[in-house]
């Protein structure tokens, strides 16, 4: 049980810590087009991300998949750029965008999962079974994402209801800010 709790905390910190800005920006861009009453859809969305994340984490842990870290560090913010840009370009087609986001979450989750793979490979290599570490880590990751989503939705609720912010303005503002920050991160991590 101690191993499970250790990896649960590790997964939690992987999304909640101050060093997890890339994951936090991705979640923010991914859910920016949803409203607080879309909570069930958002849960499915972040779970799709966790599934993608866990697949590459598992494949990397058993040494089936290896991608040079400089490419992973470049691709992670690039996924955020694409997600934010998608929000901006498809601003009038929210239903289509919401459908696309499920695929983006799963596919980009695969890329984000590679970001923790080297660390996981070193830590989990000593374990007799991958099941407990991966289960604990992914549950921690999922819980962290849910807490992050709740915080974002509470802020959105107050902005829309109390301050009467236009929802389209919210989407454009958040997506533009996330786009700018992640583009800077992408250019800083250019692998060539």
Radius of gyration from CA coordinates: 17 Å
Secondary structure: helix percent = over 70%
Q: Find the structural class using helix and strand composition.
A: mainly alpha
Low-confidence stretches: none
Mean pLDDT: 90
Number of helices: 8
The total domain count is: 1
Shape: globular
Report what the structure shows.
InterPro entries: Put_HupE_UreJ. It holds the Pfam family HupE_UreJ_2. The chain crosses the membrane at residues 15-35, 42-62, 74-90, 102-124, 144-163, 170-187. This protein is mainly α. It has one domain. It is built from eight helices and no strands. It has helices spanning 2-16, 21-31, 39-61, 69-89, 94-114, 117-124, 131-161, 167-188. The radius of gyration is 17 Å and the shape is globular.
Features:
192 residues, mainly alpha, 8 helices, 79% helix, globular
Provide a concise account of the structure shown.
With 192 residues, the chain is an all-alpha fold.
Please outline the helices and strands.
Layout: H1 2-16, H2 21-31, H3 39-61, H4 69-89, H5 94-114, H6 117-124, H7 131-161, H8 167-188
